[in-house]
Amino acid sequence: MKLSTLTVVALILGFFQLTLLHYFKVFGAQPDLFLVSVILASLFLPERRAIIFSIAVGVFKDTFGLHTFGLNILLFAIWSFLIVKVTRKVAIEDNLSRLLLLFIVALLHNIISGLALVYSGNFIPAGIFLRAVFLGALYTGLTLPLILKIIKVRIV
Amino acid sequence: MFNLKDKKLIPFLVVVSLLIFVAISISILRAPILAVSRPPFSLFVFLQRELGGMLFYHHNLVENTRLNRENELLKYKLNALNEAHLENARLKKILDLKQKSSFRVIAARVIIRPADNWSCGLVIDKGSAQGIKKGLAVATFSGLAGRVVETTGSTAKVMLLNDPNLGVSGLVQRSRQEGLVCGTLGANLLMKYLSDNADIKEGDTIVSSGLNDTYPKGLLIGTVIDIGRDLSGLSRFAVVKPAIDLSNIEEVLVIIP
Description:
The complex is a heterodimer of chains A (about 160) and B (about 260).
Chain A: H1 3-19, H2 33-44, H3 47-63, H4 71-89, H5 95-119, H6 126-150
Chain B: H1 6-24, H2 26-55, H3 57-95, E1 104-112, E2 121-124, E3 137-140, E4 143-151, E5 156-160, E6 167-172, E7 178-183, E8 189-194, E9 205-208, E10 220-229, E11 236-242, E12 251-256
Antiparallel strand pairs in B: 1-2, 1-12, 2-5, 3-4, 3-12, 4-5, 6-7, 6-9, 7-8, 8-11, 9-10, 10-11
């Protein structure tokens, strides 16, 4: 996939995330389409470009966030770096593996974001925390095949 | 797979330091990015509203008729209340009581919504150029919505009541019992630090207490739907259903004291 195509896809996903996605909330959880962009970049771009792209997506996401520290910039760069390293050793070329990879990354991302919020002194009921962590990760994972189908990436 | 050689250690540390620097300085990057992204988001919201108006024409027509009727009734009630208000002001003047300061409001439209599951906020299309400052209260006609946490020239970021980082001093309208209303990321709010013998029950209305200057006194927050006890057993809490649907706000009023 070309960098220009991926940039357009990321911009559309970001725009959708910031405007219309709240209509598609399930039990208060919504997918993280910025993370989907990061995974796509890490899977289809060369290492350096993928990491820079992920940092840019992180900056874009944190710009519209409410928190003063840009946690997503750091996490997106780490996820991108790790995915690039992993895909050198393990072939991730079918939709199910990509979905699983995205689910695991989203799960870790949600756990870290949630714990950062809790450890900064905020109270979140356990039910809401677990719902945001697991349902959010699952929902994010399930959007990937749909997005790949829309942008017509052929599976080997 | 992940071991770093000594030669690569310095560039690696430089990259990590740069990343941390960018993450810390994100607030500096926000203003220009928000300024650039405001026009397309505003245009999108405008088109969305117009398209919605056309698609739901019949529904809007029926709604308009109903609201016109309601408007007439409210005008009648408002007139009666104005009389009571004037009488109240006269009596207060006679008693030499300090008048509550009046405030003005700025109407703004929501153009962007939060991008994750761990915060509740929105971005509005008015900013410091229109007189909006950090810390101002934000409401709708139905009740309190949140607080301005950041402004740029033409936009402002609002933290909603259901964000766990926001706490509002609340008051039970019936018994004048005070507590701290906090968000939980869910649909309901929590009113915390209620003593064991606090006079509060299901169905009570919660309003802002006006303890600090940020939130004017008497703004509707919500209704108590459940009461529970803290895990420590030292105090009780109340589950409050917000007066407004915090997930579907389209227009807000920024309150300037």
